[in-house]
Amino acid sequence: MLKRVSNRMLERLGRIWPQSLLGRLMLVMAAGLLVTQLAASVIWASQLRAKAQVEAQSASQYMAHGASGAIRFFRSLPANYRLLLIQQLREMGGTRFFVNLNHAYVPVQQIAEHPLASSVLATVGATLKSDLPHSPSFRLAFAWPDQLVVSEDGVRLSDLPDAWVQHILLIQPDPAPILVIQTEIEPGNWLYMAALMPNPYFLSSNDPLAWDRLALQGLSLAVVLLLCLLVVRWITRPLAALSDAAAAFGQGQDDRAPPLPETGSREFINTARAFSAMRERIQRYIEDRERLFISISHDLRTPITRLKLRSELLDDEALRNEFEEDLDELDMMVKGALQCVKDSDIHENPAEVKLDALLGRLVRSARLAGHEVGYRDSGVTVRAKPLALKRALGNLLDNALYYGDRAEISVSSEPGAVAIAVRDHGPGVPEDAFASLFDSYVRLAHGREQNDAGMGLGLGIARSVIEAHGGQLLLENHPEGGLNATIRLPA
User: Fold this and answer.
1) Which H or E run contains 416?
2) How far is CA 185 from CA 48, 79, 108, 369, 450, in A?
């Protein structure tokens, strides 16, 4: 069960993992940057919260000491002087607290629960208890200005004259939470005090997920990723050129591939020079090979013909027949070697090939020769070298007709490819013989019985042609008997 789950996870990762080097480098660099920024943000946020907690504790004690002094002062005044002093404070200003007297506790609509606000309230309450141990309980809360009620008759802070509060509390344009302290200084008389913290916006200043900070991090991440993309593209572009040159050379289109630019990093320049030198050596080898076999064909044809004429002069008929058989075999070997060279290196331009027309001609020729071949039109078109593809398909069809009673050809479209299957109805191939089927001059016992004139070159030539087109030739035994040869060409 665990193995099945792990296999599924690997399959999903394989679908996500990009196939190109550019995509992989970008994914790795983006993941690394995201992990680094996430780790840095976590560390920075923890330090920011710790710093904000320390600052809030100090500010809380400062506010509590100021509030305890104000409470002592108002408690020491005669009752008829308190309102006069409050009125003077409102008109003159210069005080930290907005002060009011009520006959009962005024309910306050508190702000949403916040850990730092709760910590501040706890510290203020503890400090007030320490400074005023004999005072009754204190009612503490944080409230927003637009929701704050300041008197027992329901008067809100927004209903008061601006001169009373504009120098004490922040109401607009960006309101800040207000600390409200209420305590009963004597039975039936409640002292109401409201003030801002030394840092009015202390609740938002320690938030690592504030939109401005997130926007800054997102902008920096986008800039770094853009620079990484430019650098990675600059690094991988020469590799893409090298890949295209290698693919063109492998498919026999080296004359169309532009020369590799010797620019970029030192490693790529060395690689481009080594590839160019290797391409030139291989091209010279191919040309030398063609000249060699043409020379062999030309040089051997004359002595073989001369030996055949001399064998006609032999009186012994049995000996003459043996000489002729040996010479015919030698002639066939030379022709087979030349065919192996020429058929695997056909020089022609790719074109749009209608498979129905190409395969139709092969099927009609086979039927005229008395063979049974099944085929149904598919309407599929591929881009290939027409003559080379025809020879590869002809070799596969010839094998199927030599070694089976009849043959069937089918064409189907697959994602990104076109599949051409040639199936015979013969005995099939032993499993241990598949590895050597494409080797030159390799023939199985059943093949030698059915066609003793063959050379064992057809499958090798067909595979070389198909691979030069960027495709694959796959051989397998059909479940219902016979050998199934499948060609997959790029769509």
Assistant:
1) none
2) 39, 10, 19, 121, 120
Cα separations in angstroms, 13 against 9, 16, 26, 34, 358: 6, 5, 16, 19, 42
- Comparing C-alpha atoms, which of 377, 389, 378, 398 is closest to residue 353? 389
**How do residues 17-50 score in pLDDT, each as one tens digit?**
667 766 777 777 778 878 887 887 778 777 877 8
Q: How far apart are CA 390 and CA 355, in angstroms?
A: 10
Q: Distance (Å, rounded) from C-alpha 446 to C-alpha 346?
A: 30
What are the structure tokens assigned to 292, written together?
């060699």
Contact 177, 143 (CB under 8 A): yes
Confidence class of residue 209 from pLDDT cuts 50, 70 and 90?
Answer: low
Q: Are 483 and 447 in contact (CB under 8 A)?
A: no
Relative orientation angle of helices 266-311 and 317-343, to the nearest 10 degrees = 160
Closest by alpha carbon to 261, among 233, 232, 237, 231? 237
Which positions ≥6 away from 280 have C-beta within 8 Å?
none
**Count of alpha carbons within 13 angstroms of residue 4, beta-carbon side:** 1
Q: What percent of the chain has a predicted confidence (pLDDT) above 90?
A: 4
Q: Residues 262-272: pLDDT tens digits?
A: 776 777 778 77
Q: Which amino acid is at 271?
A: T
> In this structure, which amino acid lies at residue 388?
A
Close Cβ partners of 307 (under 8 Å, ≥ 6 residues apart): 323, 327
Residue type, 146: D
Q: Is the pLDDT of residue 168 over 80?
A: no
pLDDT tens digit string along 425-437? 888 887 777 766 7
Measure the N-to-C terminal CA separation of the chain; round to a whole number of Å: 39
Q: By C-alpha distance, which of 194, 63, 49 is closest to 120? A: 63
- The values of phi and psi at residue 210, to 5°, are -65, 150
Residue count (the chain): 491
- Please give the distance of CA 185 from its chain centroid, rounded to a whole number: 70
| Residues 204 and 158 sit within 8 Å (Cβ to Cβ) | no
